[in-house]
Structure formats: structure tokens, C-alpha cells
Specification:
The complex is a heterodimer of chains A (330) and B (162). With 330 residues, chain A is mainly alpha-helical. Helix content of chain A is 66%, strand content 0%. Chain A is built from 12 helices and no strands. In chain A, helix 3 packs parallel to helix 10. With 162 residues, chain B is an all-alpha fold. Chain B has 2 domains: 86 residues, Four Helix Bundle (Hemerythrin (Met), subunit A) (Up-down Bundle), CATH 1.20.120.1200; 40 residues. In chain B, helix 1 runs antiparallel to helix 2. Chains A and B meet through helix 4, helix 5 and helix 6 of A and helix 2 and helix 3 of B.
Chain lengths: 330, 162
Amino acid sequence: MTLPPLAYHALVGFVVLNVVIGMVTYVTLLERKFAARMQSRIGPYYVGPHGLLQPIADAIKLMIKEDVVPTAADRWVYNLAPIVFLVPCVLIFATLPFAPGLGVADLNIGVLFFLAVSSLEIVGLFMGGWGSNNKYALLSAMRAVNQIISYDLPFVFAALVPVVLAGSLQMSVIVEAQRGLWFGAYPVIGWLSFIAFLVATLAAENRVPFDILEAESELVAGFRVEYSGMKFALIQLGEYAHMIGTSFLGALLFLGGWLGPGSDYVLIGAFWFLLKAMLVFLVITWVRWSFVRIRVDQILAISWKLLLPASLVLLLAAAFWVAVRGGHGA
Amino acid sequence: MTEIVGFCVAAVVLVGASLAVVLTPNLFHAVLWLAAALVATGGIFLLLDSPFLFAVQLLLYAGGVVTIVVFAIMLTERLVGASIRQTSRFVFSGAVLAAAVFAAIMGFVLQGGAVARPIAGGDQLRELGRALAGPFGVPLQLLGVLLVIALLGALYFARAED
């Protein structure tokens, strides 16, 4: 039986949406367990066997919490911000193919769509920071805008290196182009641009050591300090969805996506892809629990003086190499 | 059918948001409406079978330009403490002028008659890339030069006073 295309896309979209939300819930547990192990702790343990039901308990707790709206808040902006923040974070999954032929829409501008949509996240962020009418939230939103202006470019340039090497913006084509050699293992150009991508990812997701916008010792919780209950949950959901989405992008661009032994079967391919994405996620988590936060001026200096020129040079080098090698046969 | 409905939704959002940009007194709200208007413009590109322009519109305008405008407002308004209200003193004459421009454009469109949409063959993105690197290579380079000049100008204005 074949469904009409619209119904098919709607169905796949619905499934992907729910899988993403489920994954986000459990990735928080993964992060907490991982962090605990790094610090010789056990982590969540008492809710369910080995703490496996902890994320569900957290979700229920957040849902039944009282929703407090500050009196001086800019009400419309404040209430809309979590949704405006969440939508792009979930939409980025729309063009990700999880295995050959398995995905919502494998657009021919896939990577560009991902980058474009994830750049909208900042709108929700400064809506929250401004609408809360709280100076900590505002300072946090200021820093976020600052940081995103600085790190969007290196992030895009680093992500474009595999695009140039594969000669396509379509995600499935990029994966197939890595059949011989993953782009993350591509001599020099690939290695360096994978590192640049990881650093820019940390900054784009505001993770330690680039988490100045929620520096808890100075800004409490940053732009979401005034949010509670379900709205807080939506923001958390968006943040983790963005992080997982970027991990998937990294695995797809540099680690060969679903390629691996037996990847001709859809499920095995999806398994490899998930494994690689979680690997990227754990690297990000590992950095988070190992390094200290750096200062604002250091963050800006790293971007403008090191990462941006380096990623530009890498992009040019990739283009030059492709030209020398003889293009993509087109 | 879906196309017409989609266009109507995008058009209503676009016109409504654009009006809100010029009419709301709160500068920050104006920027948010501007973001909505830019996303709606992207939606119209999408309806015209141009997903590439849609993505570029989101990346550069809704993501980039709006961020920079917000940056400027935040720096001036809340942190410096000066409250800036948008004062539209010439609303009436502005509306008249806008109506005149609208009438003129509609006149041209109606005179021109309906033109069938060109059927895009092959990989549009590839064709676009070829066009930009081939016949339009020189204009593209010139645009780059223009942007560099604009950057230098900004640096000149932002230099430390001595």
C-alpha cells in the first residue's frame, strides 16, 4: 500500500517529532549518568531500575509545576518565546535522513536548510531574554546575540567543507560520497574542519566552555531565569533538540552518516548513524564536564582571530583541492 | 489549490507584519514583526519553487539582519538606559505615498498580463551555481568588493577617536 505523498510526509514527520522528543528526554539521562561517572558519582539511581525512569519523573514534575509570569514581563513576547525557540530546534530534523530513504524530506538544499533554520533559534532566545524584563535575562540575551554573531560564520564555513568535497548540499549525497573515506578522516582538510566544526558547535549551542550566557555563578540561569513549569520545559527541550540535531549533522557530515558494516539494511544503517551521533554528543558532554568557562573577550578573540580565518582557509583549501582533483564529474 | 491557500496565508502575515513594523511604537516589537515579515517573504519564495532562496532568506535576513538590529537596540535602549520610541509623524502622507506606489505597480502588473511560470529543468541549484561562477562571475566579484568597502567604512566610523 502506498500513501499519498502529503500523508506520507505528515506521518513520517509525526514519527520523527515524537522520536526526537523521546530522545531528548533520555539524552538528559545519558548526560547526567556520563557526567556522574566522570566525577566518580553514580548519578540518578532511585527512580526505576538504575534511574531509568528519572527523565519521565522530571517531565511530569515540570508539567505540574505552577506557571509563574513576572508582573513586569512583556506578556506576549514572554509567552511566545519558548515556542519561537522550540520550533526551529525541532524543524532542523526535517531534512536529516536517518538511513537511506528514511527521513522526512531529503531536500537538495538539505545542509543549507539545516543552517538556515537553526539560525532562527536566536529570535526565540532574545525574545525570552527581553520579554522577561529581568536584567540577568537581558544580559544573557545580549551575550547570546554577541556569541552567535561571532560563531555562526565559522560554523557555516566548517559545515561547508564536506559540502564542497561532496559537491552537493543534499545530505544523502554527502553520505554516499563518504563511502571510501569519511570526511572527518580526510587528510588535513577533513581533520581540521572537523575540529573547527566541533568547537563552533560548542559555541553555537552555548555549552561549556562557551556558556557565558547561562553562567550560573553570575547570571543564574541566563535568559530562561524567569521561566517555570512547562515553558521552562519547552526551552530545555529546544536546547537539547538543537544539540542532538547538531550531533546528527556532525555525524552525517564528517563521520559517514549511516555507513558501516551491513548498512544496506535500513535499521542497521539507522543504528550506525545513531551511534555516531551519540559519540559526537558524548564528546560535547565530555568537554562540558572537563573544561572551565572562558571570558567573553576570549570567546570573541577565539572566533574572530582564530576560528573564522582558519575555517575560511579550510574552505578555500577544500575548493582548491576539488578543482585540482578534477571536480565532481559534472 | 494548496498553493493559493499558502499564498493567501503568507500574504496576510506579510502585510500584517509589515504594517505592524511601521505602526508599533515599541522598537523591539517592531524588530520581531520584521522577523515575521521576513519569514513570510521566505514562505513566498518557497511557494514559487525556490527553496534555495527560502533558505538564504532565513539565514541572512531572519537570522542575520534581525540579530544585528536587535543587538543595536539592546545596546542603546536597555543598557544605556535611553528609551527610544518609534514616532511616525508622517503616517498619513506615508500611507498616501504607499498607496500610490501600490497602484502604479498593480497597473504595470495588470498591463503586463499573466505570464506562465518558467518550468525549471534539471538541478536548479547546480544551474544557479554555474550561473554565478560563469556569466555572473564579474558582478558577483563586484558585489564582494562593495561589501568590503562597506566594511572598511564601518571600521572608519567605529575607530577610536584620537
